[in-house]
Each structure stands twice: as structure tokens, then as C-alpha cells.
Amino acid sequence: MAAQQVIPSPRLVLVIEKASGQPVSRCYQCHKCTGGCPVTGFMDLMPHQVVRYVQLGLEEDLLKSKTIWQCAACRTCISRCPNGIDIAAINDALKQRTLARGVQPALPAVAAFHQAFLNSIKGKGRVHELGMMIAFKMKTGSYFQDVLLGLQMFRRGKLRLLPEGLKNRERFRALWQGEKEGQR
Ligand code: SF4
Ligand code: SF4
Fold it and tell me: Is the pTM of this model over 0.90?
């Protein structure tokens, strides 16, 4: 059978460069990012492959990959990359694109946590840990997991009952809106 021809899609590079703020097209596949990444044992695409797939426009493979959810955002890759490419930022842009397009995430629990975290920040400008964990548990159905730990944290004052807001909400809203527009 003839090998499938890969047709590069310049559009995906442009979209992800805009959403992530990263110069994806500068990557020349030196693999230094992958050489330093501590999470490659759990990834189905290596960090350098994520960048290459974006260059080639292989969107479906990217949005269905575990790697975009597995990335720990430790930023070792950017410290090693000769072109200053932050792959965690690229993965974040790909996560948002996965959710916006209604693609089933490869790691649903991680995606549920990601969404609960962002929704919590969106509401008040700060994370409300208790509200975020309730939203996460409702989404995943893991109601009783970590209950004892949660009670211990509550007793020690680590979980607030009510969310705290920001003083400058208008500035936060403008930042949030700018971030969303950058991802379109
Ligand atoms: S280190 Fe940078 S240039 Fe090298 S493969 Fe990774 S992203 Fe590309
Ligand atoms: S930020 Fe993500 S891709 Fe980069 S080294 Fe850390 S875990 Fe690996």
C-alpha cells in the first residue's frame, strides 16, 4: 500500500502560534526538549513531535493525544530549546482547542480538573479550592475519593467555605477576554 501523503497545513501553525504566543515555525527538530522532559514515559507523542505535528497540521492526532494533558508544565523544555519554544504553552492552546471543538479528551479526569480550575478562576479571578473540587467530583463521579484528606484540610483552615474575589475585577476581566481572543 502506498504511504499516506502528509499535507502540511500552514493554518494550524498560525492558529497555535497566535493562541500560545510561541514561534512554532522556528523549531528545527533538535529534540533537546524531549531529552529533558521528565514525563515522556507517560506520553504518546514526544514534546518535539507535538511541535512537528503542529507544523504539519496534524490536528486530529494532537487533539486526541494524551501528551497535551500529561504535560506537567514544568517548562524544562523552554530552558533547553535553542529557539525559546515553550511547549507547555502549546499544549495549553491544544487543550483549549480540544475542549472548544468538542473532541473527547484522551485523559478525561485531567481535562475535568483543568476545566474546574479554569471555571473557578473565571468566576472570581482566584481559585476557590473547595468549589473547584466539588465541580471536579461532580464531573468525574469520584465523590468519596480524598474525603478524609479534604476534612483534614478543612480543619486546618486550608479550604475556605466562601470564595475570595479580586480587588481589581475589571483588569482581570480584560486579561481573561484578551486571552480568549488570542485563542481564536
Ligand atoms: S528543543 Fe526547541 S527547536 Fe529543538 S525540537 Fe524542541 S521545540 Fe524544536
Ligand atoms: S513543560 Fe511539559 S513538555 Fe515541557 S518538559 Fe515539562 S512536562 Fe515536558
Answer: no
